[in-house]
Amino acid sequence: MWALGCVVFEMLHRRPAFAAEERFELENLIRRAKHAPIDKRVPADARELIKGLLDAQPQRRLTARQVLDESSWVAAGASGG
């Protein structure tokens, strides 16, 4: 689910959620969930989706079921609508 958050972020921003010059810096950003700021033009439900998917704590991260239940635009795409 974390990887989905990275993909959604990059699709909406056209840049990666995490970027650094050095690998250890990148790993540190990822471990602490210090992703790039979410653009204010991104719809509120997409912002919450990204935050929920990129949570540093796996047990707090959104599950696939939660994503489908809570994100109407994701559910519409998943059902072909």
How much beta, percentage-wise? under 5%
* Total discrete domains: 1
Number of helices: 5
Mean pLDDT: 92
Instruction: Tell me the Rg in angstroms.
Output: 13 Å
Any low-confidence stretches, pLDDT <50, length ≥5?
none
Q: Distance between the terminal alpha carbons, to the nearest Å?
A: 22 Å
CATH superfamily membership:
Transferase(Phosphotransferase) domain 1
Task: Write down the oligomeric state.
Answer: single chain
Considering DSSP H and I runs of 4 or more, what fraction of the residues is helical? 55-70%
Describe the sheet with the most strands.
none
Classification by helices and strands: mainly alpha
Query: Mind telling me the CATH class?
Result: Mainly Alpha
SSE order = HHHHH
Global shape: globular
CATH architecture: Orthogonal Bundle
According to CATH, the fold-level topology is Transferase(Phosphotransferase), domain 1
Number of E strands: 0
EC number: 2.7.11.1
Catalytic activity: L-threonyl-[protein] + ATP = O-phospho-L-threonyl-[protein] + ADP + H(+); L-seryl-[protein] + ATP = O-phospho-L-seryl-[protein] + ADP + H(+)
GO molecular function: ATP binding; protein serine/threonine kinase activity
Enzyme class: transferase
